[in-house]
Every structure is written in structure tokens, then in C-alpha cells.
């Protein structure tokens, strides 16, 4: 089909505003699927993703639509992940499109996540079609939603289409608008082939499947191809389009400029395929790759350990499998005195971290414990050398550190008016600053704040939800690094540091955190034959201390020295118990004790 009859678009929406329902309606209306098939909500794959309100992987879908002008168009509906952790993937999916439907719930209005993705789409120069969905709801408030579109997103409200995905209202108008308003692809069919890689998956039967948007030229089976960023050379085995049903791959003789489709070549692992890379012809390679390629770097790190040490190999295998379809998740083996053998893992962000941990638990039935998450700190030494440290263990001695810089984020928070003051308190507690405030409507404001990434890692989103009784929402974008008074906090047991509890924290918060950790550890360390000191220290200086007092009686004392066999039994029993103990500074501590403290972290 010529490019003039192709439209590539995606849907931007906040969770629950109706993206899945609307996608199903579009597929039904175009006859791509039958009504009853739609019940499975084809676009959303994984349970976990639905629960968290995000989609990480969903394949694009091709539909044929005969418009009112009598012409049949090919519409490629792409999916975009709805979370900032995947902002780079979102930007590449958007780069593969010329336009986007922006869905806003008629009763809820514009939400924080919508704002960030609309900014991304505008930066890419996409044509946006605003769709106000759920107009059937009795509490829908069209004037308010229209004002928000104009004031917050700078989108003319008279461009908005009104729809009810549930009731099937406005579906044809949306399809007509896609055809009429979104520009067709404008690639050069005769230029050297360039295709944008926007995703890839691993299919058990086909191996690595690369998702591409052909920008210039064409590609077919048998072509030699090259990935320009990684320099890998391959031969194409198959090209094709996506279908919503299984089997979802639909082989074609060739893909042309403007097409969205897949390429299967003799690529061994998904790690060879970087999102944003350019695929070109190996015989007649393009001179310039497509713009915008970045190597995605993990932003958040944490140690993941099997609770049962015997599960190490199993955990390694499970992580390897997860990585096959998610090359942005990285891990390498490490060991900890307190927790034994495990892995240091890198994630794109907090949500990505939670998803991986949850998938290990649910899909692979792994019992795991994670250490306190850390960001990457830029540490400038007095000799000018700059180190990037994500693991407190590798922090140099304070005497050679000139300055520590931490990553900061610009965070958008939507909050109902009555909760502004407790929310501001939370932002202050998290070492944040208010940049500016915008009024959204009579009920809500949007706060733009600057916060250290490490402060929002653990419970920031939950706290916003609890302060605002679920009505607040937040999203963030990265905003560089800033120097601050950061220190390494160690927890010592009888003078020996417990590696799993070391963390990099702000100086003003170090003591409080040290006290909490020491107190928790005191609760779970069993009494020993002698007194045990638990200390929190910054660079050798103790800032908090707890004591576990010594056991009063010897365990064998009650045997009065008479019954030897009973005495031996008792000692043996003790020995068995010790097997699962970790010796830290002559103190035997059960591994469960560390796990208890980390769980409560
Ligand atoms: P997504 O999270 O954006 O994919 O949203 P879904 O499509 O899953 O929809 C979220 C909820 O809103 C579901 O319970 C839908 O049935 C409901 N919903 C979607 N569209 C409409 C609509 O037009 N009107 C009403 N009343 N409910 C809708």
C-alpha cells in the first residue's frame, strides 16, 4: 500500500481512562477482530502490568479501514508504555508514529502521567487528536476537561472528539480523524534502507523478533542487514506485519517505507538489539543512522538475594529469562557477608525494579530479599577523578572526597486543594523544593517540584496516595545532578560493618536512619554469651548505639554436669542452628535476622 494510505499512530492515556476499551472498539469497527474476541482485551498482555496500570510490551496492530472517502487505509496502532521509567522506549515508539490519540476521561480530567507523555509527543512533532472518553458517565464534566486541555497541555479544545468507548459512541469519528488529521509517512521509497528499531522480543519458535518502522527504502527476506549502533551483521529470514490474534506474526514479501512491522534475522539474543538503533542494508548501508539513539542506562540499583541460599542457580536462570525480553534489566553476581550469594541488579527506575522483583516472585516462585535501593552517585575526588558509585561498599574514604552529586528529578504532582499543605510537608521531608504551582480546575492544582531521585525511591508514591486518599498522582522526569551533604552510613555489629545495611544518605537524615536500623537489628539479634554492640557510624564516627545484653545462664548449666549424653545433644542442636548463622564480628546472627530488618526497611 502506498505511504499516502498509511497512518501510524499511538494512544496516550492515563491508566483507566479507556485505552484498552477504545483499542478494542477500533479493532472491532475495522473488522480486524470479532466482537467476542475483544473480550480478552487484546492489547494488554500481562496481569501485573494491568495491576500497576502500565503496559511495557504490547505489539503494534495493523488494521484496514475504508474511510468515508471510499479509500482503504492501513492504520498501524502502536502501543506505548505509560510510565516514566520507560520514557526512552516511549520516545522511540512515538518516533515511529506521525500522530497520537490523547484519551482523557470525561470525569477525571487530565492526570500527571498524561502530561509527561504529551510533552514527549509534542517534542517529537506528533499530531495530537484529543479524545474525551466516557462521555456517557453522569458525572462527566466536559467544560472542565476542555479547559484543562487548553490550559495544561496547550491543546485547542475545539479539536477534541467526544467518545464513549464503552457505549461505542464516536468510534467512526475517531477513525476518520486519524485518516484526515494525522499526516501520512513521508519516507523515500528509493533511498537506502533505514528502519527504526522500537522494540524486540524473544519468541521461542522464531528467536529474536525485531519491531521496526521502515523510514526509507524497503526490506525483504534474504537481504543482508546491519544494526548501525552495535555494528552487528545479519541476514533477514522473514519480514511481516502484526495481527492481533495468535499467531500474531503475518509474513509479507517485503516491508516498504512508512510500514510498521517485524524483521526476523539470525540474531541470537535480544541484547544485540538496542531500542532506537537503525537497521540498514548490509550491501548498501545508509550513510547516517536515524536520530535519537541512546544507550539506556540503569538508574536504580539493588541487591537481590535468594532467601534460601540453595536457590542461587535457580534465581540466576530466572533472571536470565527475564532479561531475554527486557535487556534494560541488568544483573551480575555479588556476595554479601550478611546475605550470602546473590546479584547486584540495575533497573530503569523504581517501577521497573518492583516489576522485576514481583515477576521473580510470581512467575518463577522465587523467595527473594532485596537490599535498600540506591541511585548512581557522581563522586568527585580531591584529585579531580570522578567515580560513579551505585553500591555504598565502593564509596571511597571521606578524606579523599571533594564532593558527592546525586541525581535529581523534576516531579509533577497533581493534588486536590485540601491536601496541598500536608503534601508540601512531605516534599520538604524528602528534601524537595517547589518550583511552581498551576491551577487545574476548581478542585486541583499541579505542583512542579524538584526532588532528589533517591528520596522518591522507596515510598514516595504510596505516601502521596495516602495523604491525598488516592486522589493525587505523580510523574517525574530526570533533571541532572546536584551536589549535597551525602555520607555513607554503616551499621556495625561489635565493630564489624554489616554490608547489606550500608547506605548512602543525606547527612541530616543519617542519624535518624542509623537509630532506626540499630533498634530493629537489636530486636532480631538473639542474645549471645556476651554483650553485643550495634552501632551506626558515619566515616568511623558512631552516631547511634544499641546493646543486646549478654545471656545470663550458660545453656548447659541446667544439666548440672551429670547427664553427658543430654549435654551433647544440646550442644549438637546448637551447632545445627549455627549452620544458618552468619558470623559478624564474632557474633552469630541468623540470616533471617537480616532479612527481617531489610523487609521492614
Ligand atoms: P486503560 O487502563 O486505559 O486501558 O482503561 P480500560 O480500557 O481498561 O478502561 C478502564 C475502565 O473504564 C474499565 O472498567 C472500562 O470498562 C471503563 N470504560 C472505558 N471506556 C468507558 C466509557 O466510555 N464509559 C464508561 N462508563 N466506562 C468506560
UniProtKB/TrEMBL annotation:
Keywords on record: Cell membrane, GTP-binding, Hydrolase, Membrane, Nucleotide-binding, Protein biosynthesis
EC nos: 3.6.5.n1
Binding, GTP: 16-21, 133-136
Taxonomic superkingdom: Bacteria
MF terms (GO), sorted A to Z: GTP binding; GTPase activity; ribosome binding; translation elongation factor activity
GO cellular component: plasma membrane
Catalytic activity: GTP + H2O = GDP + phosphate + H(+)
Tr-type G domain mapped to chain residues: 4-186
Localisation: Cell membrane
A Gene Ontology BP annotation from the UniProt entry: positive regulation of translation
Topology of this chain in the membrane: Peripheral membrane protein
Listed NCBIfam families: lepA, small_GTP
Protein family according to the UniProt entry: Belongs to the TRAFAC class translation factor GTPase superfamily. Classic translation factor GTPase family. LepA subfamily.
Functional summary from the UniProt entry: Required for accurate and efficient protein synthesis under certain stress conditions. May act as a fidelity factor of the translation reaction, by catalyzing a one-codon backward translocation of tRNAs on improperly translocated ribosomes. Back-translocation proceeds from a post-translocation (POST) complex to a pre-translocation (PRE) complex, thus giving elongation factor G a second chance to translocate the tRNAs correctly. Binds to ribosomes in a GTP-dependent manner.
Name used for this protein in its record: Elongation factor 4
Native source species: Chthoniobacter flavus Ellin428
Taxonomic path: Bacteria, Pseudomonadati, Verrucomicrobiota, Spartobacteria, Chthoniobacterales
Amino acid at each position: 500500500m502506498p505511504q499516502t494510505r498509511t497512518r501510524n499512530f499511538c494512544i496516550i492515556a492515563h491508566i483507566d481512562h479507556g485505552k484498552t476499551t477504545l483499542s478494542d472498539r477500533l479493532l472491532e469497527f475495522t473488522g480486524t477482530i470479532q466482537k467476542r474476541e475483544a473480550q480478552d482485551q487484546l492489547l494488554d498482555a500481562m496481569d501485573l502490568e494491568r495491576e500497576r496500570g502500565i503496559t511495557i510490551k504490547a505489539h503494534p496492530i495493523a488494521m484496514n479501514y475504508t474511510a468515508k472517502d471510499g479509500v482503504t487505509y492501513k492504520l498501524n496502532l502502536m502501543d506505548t508504555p505509560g510510565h516514566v521509567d520507560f520514557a526512552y522506549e516511549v520516545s522511540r515508539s512515538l518516533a515511529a508514529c506521525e500522530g497520537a490519540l490523547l484519551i482523557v476521561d470525561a470525569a477525571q480530567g487530565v492526570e500527571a502521567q498524561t502530561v509527561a507523555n504529551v510533552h514527549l509527543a509534542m517534542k517529537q512533532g506528533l499530531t495530537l487528536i484529543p479524545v474525551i472518553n466516557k462521555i456517557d458517565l453522569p458525572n462527566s464534566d466536559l467544560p472542565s476537561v476542555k479547559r484543562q486541555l487548553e490550559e495544561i497541555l496547550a491543546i485547542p479544545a475545539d479539536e477534541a472528539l467526544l467518545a464513549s468507548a464503552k457505549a461505542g459512541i464516536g468510534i467512526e469519528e475517531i477513525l476518520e480523524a486519524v485518516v484526515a488529521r494525522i499526516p501520512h509517512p513521508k519516507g523515500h521509497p528509493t533511498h537506502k534502507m533505514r528502519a527504526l528499531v522500537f522494540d524486540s522480543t524473544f519468541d521461542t519458535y522464531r528467536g529474536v523478533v525485531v519491531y521496526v518502522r521502515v523510514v526509507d527504502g524497503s526490506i525483504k527476506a534474504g537481504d543482508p542487514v546491519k544494526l548501525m549502533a552495535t555494528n552487528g551483521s545479519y541476514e533477514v529470514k522473514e519480514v511481516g506485519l502484526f495481527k492481533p490474534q495468535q499467531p500474531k506474526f503475518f509474513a509479507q514479501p517485503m516491508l516498504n517505507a512508512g510500514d510498521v512491522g517485524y524483521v526476523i534475522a539470525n540474531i541470537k539474543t535480544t541484547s544485540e538489539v538496542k531500542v532506537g538503533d537503525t537497521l540498514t542494508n548490509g550491501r548498501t548501508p545508509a550513510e547516517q543512522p536515524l536520530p535519537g539513539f541512546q544507550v539506556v542506562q540503569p538508574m536504580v540499583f539493588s541487591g537481590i538475594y535468594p532467601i534460601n541460599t540453595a536457590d542461587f542457580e535457580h534465581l540466576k536462570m530466572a533472571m536470565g529469562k527475564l532479561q531475554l525480553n527486557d535487556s534494560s534489566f541488568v544483573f551480575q553476581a555479588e556476595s554479601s557477608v550478611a546475605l550470602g550469594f546473590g546479584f547486584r541488579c540495575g533497573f530503569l527506575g523504581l517501577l521497573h525494579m518492583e516489576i522485576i522483583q514481583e515477576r521473580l516472585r510470581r512467575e518463577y516462585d522465587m523467595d527473594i530479599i532485596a537490599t535498600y535501593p540506591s541511585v548512581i552517585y557522581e563522586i568527585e575526588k580531591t584529585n579531580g577523578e570522578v567515580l560513579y558509585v551505585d553500591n555504598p561498599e565502593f564509596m571511597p574514604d571521606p578524606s579523599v572526597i571533594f564532593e558527592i552529586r546525586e541525581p535529581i528529578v523534576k516531579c509533577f504532582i497533581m493534588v486536590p486543594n485540601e491536601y496541598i499543605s500536608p503534601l508540601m510537608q512531605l516534599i520538604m521531608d524528602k528534601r524537595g523544593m517547589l518550583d511552581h504551582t498551576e491551577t487545574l480546575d476548581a478542585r486541583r492544582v499541579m505542583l512542579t517540584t524538584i526532588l532528589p531521585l533517591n528520596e522518591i525511591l522507596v515510598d514516595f508514591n504510596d505516601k502521596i496516595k495516602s495523604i491525598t486518599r488516592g486522589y493525587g498522582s505523580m510523574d517525574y522526569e530526570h533533571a541532572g545532578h546536584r551536589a549535597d551533604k551525602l555520607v555513607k552510613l554503616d551499621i556495625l555489629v561489635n565493630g564489624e560493618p554489616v554490608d547489606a545495611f550500608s547506605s548512602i544518605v543525606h547527612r541530616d537524615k543519617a542519624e535518624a536512619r542509623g537509630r532506626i536500623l540499630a533498634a530493629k537489628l537489636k530486636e532480631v539479634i538473639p542474645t549471645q554469651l556476651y554483650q553485643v554492640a550495634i552501632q551506626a557510624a558515619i566515616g568511623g564516627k558512631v552516631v547511634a548505639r544499641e546493646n543486646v545484653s549478654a545471656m545470663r545462664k550458660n545453656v548447659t548449666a541446667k544439666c548440672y554436669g551429670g547427664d553427658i549424653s543430654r549435654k551433647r545433644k544440646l550442644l549438637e542442636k546448637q551447632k545445627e542452628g549455627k549452620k544458618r548463622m552468619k558470623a559478624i564480628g564474632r557474633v552469630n546472627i541468623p540470616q533471617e535476622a537480616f532479612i527481617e530488618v531489610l523487609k521492614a526497611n
